[in-house]
Amino acid sequence: MLLRRITQHVKNQNWFAVFIDFLIVVVGVFIGIQVANWNESIKAKQDEITYLTRIHGDIEFAEKFSKRTITRRINTLNSSLEMVELMNGDGNEFTDNYVSCYFPSTVSIQINLPSLKTINELLATGNLNLLSNEHIRSAILQLHTRIEVLRRFQDFAKTEMIDIPDVFSSSIKLRARTDENNEIRLDRLCNLQALHANNRFVNAINDGIDITDAFINSHVIPWSKQLEQLHRLIDEDLHLNHKD
Ligand SMILES: [Zn+2]
Fold first, then answer.
1. Cα separation of 143 and 137, whole Å?
2. Number of neighbouring beta carbons within 10 Å of residue 188
3. Closest among 156, 150, 152, 176 to 70, alpha carbons compared
4. Residue 213 falls in which region: left (phi positive, over 0), alpha (psi -120 to 50) or beta
5. CB 86 within 8 Å of CB 192
6. In terms of CB atoms within 10 Å, which end of the chain has fewer, N or C?
7. Distance, CA 230 to ligand 1 centroid (Å)?
């Protein structure tokens, strides 16, 4: 229709009308492109909100899942430190009775980090740029690196640490029991006198406490703080205001 009209105007040499027709075509195309861009940017914003909401859910789960384990590991580290100090002393007060004890063990460097599925998906598909907030992108990359380093450290520590209850089983008894939350807990009972006299044990716990301390203070706690920081950034971006 428009084409026929333009042809007619050209035949009549009505150049002004041709110009107006041309302008209508150009403006039409321009508006079409703008509307398409606009729709695309609305879709991108919606996708971004969907991804951020999913990441937020993953983080809330991870924080809840890991909170109690981290607290337990910190408590065990502190109690193990006391044991190391006792063992490094003269040991005159020890008897050969079995008493409750703590020591660094391979369990101290075990934490199952909950998987952040949405982040893994964004990274695996190369779609991290769907998130427009550069602080969030950067926090995600830093957290991802932290998780990799932490897992490598766990693997290294597992091969380095002696399985103390097994190697020194003649002076250590493990006893499982059910705690007040109906969870199975493991009590460790030690013959402190015998263990203090055993240099290999004293060396092993001094070595183990160093690894456990590095695991908790240089890996797990920074991971937890980075997760918290990412959570805060996403809360800000999604205008969420809640206190756990
Ligand atoms: Zn939140």
1. 10
2. 18
3. 150
4. alpha
5. yes
6. N
7. 9
Task: Kindly state the DSSP code that residue 188 receives in the 8-state scheme.
Answer: E
User: 236 CA distance to ligand 1 centroid (A)?
Assistant: 9
**What is the CB-side half-sphere exposure of residue 238 using CA atoms within 13 A?**
23
Q: Report the phi/psi class of residue 131: left, alpha or beta, with left for phi > 0 and alpha for psi in -120 to 50.
A: beta
CB 187 within 8 A of CB 175: yes
Name the 3-class secondary structure at 237: helix
DSSP-H helix ranges across 89-163 = 117-124, 134-160
CA atoms within 13 A on the CB side of 45: 8
Q: How many angstroms is it from 63 CA to the middle of ligand 1?
A: 10
Distance 232 CA to ligand 1 centre (A): 7
Summarize the chain as % helix, strand, coil (round to 5).
70, 5, 20
Query: In 89-133, where does DSSP find H-type helix?
Result: 117-124
The count of other CB atoms within 10 Å of the CB of residue 202 is 16
Report the alpha-carbon angle 160-79-199, nearest 5.
50
Q: Which residues crowd ion ligand 1, with CB under 5 Å? A: 235, 240
Structure tokens of 234? Answer: 């996403």
Question: Within 10 A of 128 (CB to CB), how many other CB atoms are there?
Answer: 15
**Distance of alpha carbon 81 from alpha carbon 103, whole angstroms:** 8
Q: Split the chain (244 residues) into runs of 10 and give each run's mean pLDDT.
A: 75 80 83 85 90 97 93 94 96 95 90 91 95 97 96 92 94 94 91 97 96 96 97 96 71
